[in-house]
Write a structure and sequence with these properties.
Blueprint lengths: L1 H11 L5 H13 L3 H14 L4 H13 L3 H14 L5 H13 L3 H13 L3 H14 L3 H14 L4 H13 L3 H14 L4 H13 L3 H14 L4 H13 L3 H14 L4 H13 L3 H14 L4 H13 L5 H11 L4 H13 L3 H17 L5 H16 L22 H13 L26 H20 L6 H4 L25
Helix pairs in contact: 1-2, 2-3, 3-4, 4-5, 5-6, 6-7, 6-8, 7-8, 8-9, 9-10, 10-11, 10-12, 11-12, 12-13, 12-14, 13-14, 14-15, 14-16, 15-16, 16-17, 17-18, 18-19, 19-20, 20-21, 20-22, 21-22
Length: 492
């Protein structure tokens, strides 16, 4: 109807009606016919060159065509024609600057947009840009000011809640996420972040309900599939959990987080060879993550590979002040019969736990078990005690207990090992994949299609040569020459 009325006005006015050109351009832009829409806006500019509105629409069309530098220049021309500060132009300039890699300049434009009265859009954009600059506290402040000054929608509330959760403020995150879900019960971002928070606090049942809601809205969400698998693992539903984690890897074969979590589940299910394949991928994607390297060391040890010591050393060098890595290295020394080194590393772990701002009850309990095992083998401790906790953890059936229950028994079976403790890294809970633009969603779809094609040729999403590197009996003869991403580890 609008298009027909526009054409009628053009016929009556000899194709020189500016407003008719403008409306026809808006209709074409909404229909996705961007080049035709820009032609209409250029006609407006030719008829009256002092109006900034057609230039703003041209800049929008260029941005949608991924021509960000041209869009930036068009916004600058529109800003020159504007008689008053225009928050819409400033926000467009900030987005274009972000796209071309000049984030600092984008922050300046976003601040100008906030000062010009850009409201929720400018404030949320400023927060995202500050977060892209790794400025967490300023981003939180920007969200707080935006929410306090404007009646924000569910998307902004969900993003602010997820950032609060990332910053370690679960109470503030819960309020913001609850407000987002009150506005829009099917809001995917809020449901995913709230489920992650519930999962971190051990409430797997409530997390499962939220994750199902998130998957109903966004069935291709990698974080939701991964978190659902983790929630099922905490409830000892291993087959269902493995299925969800494998689906997450299928959707995102280049995600180090998804590979890490799947490898951890495979270790729980006593499949170290498959876990090693996933961890090799994860370390290749994220070679500086100490917990992933630690998992790789544990997998190598369970395969009987002597390169496990080098992997443990690598994890310790990446995180020398991580008590979790330290206690595992101490346990490895104990299992290998190096009691003196085990005692020294246990002492270092005890000191790390004492120096920490928050005593980890689970690690302190694990350290006590390790020292008891070492004492039973004849190790001598000099004034070494685990840190005393004000509220010691009782028998908890959380995910860490589930992991240790499934691994500790195996470590005691080998006669040459002395201390049978293994404390695996925590599960990596994801909740920040909701801020995905349409182009990224299309890329995810393409990755999934590629993964499905690869899966039709192989039973696992790993190269065929690497999968054949393991013998059917689980031995490691076939990958003696395999070099992981964190460095070449030669056999002793």
């Amino acid at each position: 109807m609008c298009s027909e009325l526009s054409d009628e006005l053009q016929n009556k006015n000899g194709n020189r009606h500016i407003y008719a050109h403008f409306i026809k351009g808006l209709v074409l832009a909404d229909a996705g016919r961007l080049q035709e829409a820009m032609d209409r806006f250029h006609s407006c500019i030719k008829l009256y060159s002092q109006d900034p509105e057609p230039l703003k629409q041209v800049a929008r069309c260029l941005y949608r065509q991924d021509r960000f530098q041209l869009s930036y220049e068009a916004y600058l021309e529109a800003d020159k024609l504007a008689k008053h500060p225009d928050a819409e132009i400033y926000c467009g300039l900030a987005e274009c600057s972000w796209k071309v890699g000049e984030v600092a300049r984008g922050v300046e434009w976003a601040r100008a947009g906030v000062q010009a009265g850009g409201g929720e859009r400018a404030g949320a954009l400023l927060a995202r840009l500050l977060l892209a600059c790794d400025q967490l506290e300023p981003a939180l402040q920007a969200y707080d000011q935006t929410i306090a000054a404007n009646a924000c929608g569910a998307d902004t509330l969900a993003a602010a809640g997820a950032l609060r959760l990332r910053a370690g403020d679960p109470r503030g995150a819960f309020q913001l996420l609850g407000a987002a879900l009150a506005q829009q019960p099917g809001q995917h971002a809020a449901a995913l972040a709230l489920a992650a928070m519930l999962l971190q606090h051990g409430d797997a049942s409530a997390a499962l309900a939220r994750l199902k809601a998130a998957l109903t809205t966004h069935p291709t969400c990698v974080a939701a599939h991964s978190n659902l698998g983790l929630a099922l693992l905490t409830r000892k539903k291993y087959i269902a959990g493995l299925t969800c984690l494998q689906r997450a890897v299928q959707w995102a074969p280049l995600s180090a987080r998804a590979a890490h979590n799947l490898a951890l589940a495979l270790l729980i299910c006593r499949r170290p060879a498959s876990a090693f394949c996933r961890l090799a991928n994860a370390t290749a994607l994220q070679p500086q993550h100490p917990h992933t390297v630690l998992l790789l060391a544990i997998a190598l040890e369970r395969l009987g590979d002597s390169r496990a010591d080098a992997a443990y050393a690598r994890a310790l060098s990446l995180a020398p002040h991580d008590a979790l890595v330290s206690v595992n290295v101490a346990a490895r020394h104990g299992r290998a019969g190096r009691l003196q080194l085990a005692v020294e590393e246990a002492s270092n772990t005890s000191q790390l736990l004492r120096d920490g701002n928050k005593a980890d009850a689970h690690l302190a309990s694990s350290l006590s078990v390790l020292m008891s095992l070492l004492e039973n083998t004849g190790a001598q401790f000099e004034m070494l005690n685990a840190p005393v906790l004000e509220n010691p953890a009782e028998d908890r059936e959380d995910r860490n207990d589930v992991i240790n229950d499934n691994l500790a028994s195996d470590e005691m079976e080998c006669k040459e090992r002395r201390a049978g403790l293994v404390v695996l890294p925590p599960l990596i809970i994801g909740y920040d994949e909701f801020n995905i633009e349409e182009t990224e969603e299309d890329e995810t779809t393409n990755v999934k299609e590629t993964a499905e094609e690869d899966q039709s040729n192989t039973s696992e999403l790993v190269p065929e040569a690497r999968r054949k590197a393991f013998d059917e009996d689980g031995s490691n003869k076939g990958y003696e020459n395999y070099n992981t991403q964190y460095g070449k580890i030669k056999r002793n």
